[in-house]
Design goal:
There is one protein chain. Helix content is 49%, strand content 18%. The longest helix is centred in the C-terminal third of the chain and has 26 residues. The termini are far apart. A four-stranded antiparallel sheet has the order 1-2-4-3. The chain is α+β, with helices and mostly antiparallel strands. A hairpin with a 2-residue loop joins strand 1 and strand 2. It has three helices and four strands; from the N terminus they run αββαββα.
Length: 111
C-alpha cells in the first residue's frame, strides 16, 4: 500500500506542476514524499514565503503539512492510508497552494 499510494501521490503532484510553477521538484520513496517549492523553475530559487503561506492555508482547510529544509513540504501519511484520503489531502494541498501563490505574487506585484 505504501508503494502504491506513494506513486499515486507523486503522480498527482506531477500533474499539479502544470498549474503550479512553484512546484520545482518531487522526490521520495513510498509515502515519504517531499515537494520542493521554488520561485523560478529554472534557477530553483527556494520559495520560503510561499511555503509559509501554504502551511497556514492548508492548516486552515484541515490539512497539517510539515516543512522540511528551506522550502520543501514533507508528506508522511500513515502507511495504511486509503486512496480516498490521499485524494482529499491532495485536493486541499492544491487549493492551499493556489491561495499561497496568489498571495505571494499579488504582494510581489504591489497589490
Amino acid at each position: 500500500n505504501a508503494a502504491r499510494m506513494g506513486e499515486y501521490l507523486q503522480q498527482r503532484v506531477r500533474e499539479m506542476m502544470e498549474r503550479h510553477p512553484t512546484i520545482g521538484d518531487i522526490r521520495g520513496k513510498g509515502l515519504m514524499v517531499g515537494i520542493e517549492l521554488v520561485l523560478d523553475p529554472v534557477t530553483k530559487e527556494p520559495a520560503r514565503r510561499i511555503l509559509d503561506d501554504l502551511l497556514q492555508a492548508a492548516f486552515e482547510r484541515g490539512l497539517l503539512l510539515l516543512p522540511c529544509g528551506v522550502s520543501t513540504i514533507r508528506f508522511m501519511p500513515a502507511l495504511n492510508i486509503s486512496q480516498k484520503i490521499v485524494e482529499e489531502g491532495l485536493d486541499i494541498f492544491d487549493r492551499a497552494l493556489t491561495v499561497a501563490e496568489e498571495h505571494f505574487f499579488d504582494k510581489r506585484n504591489g497589490r
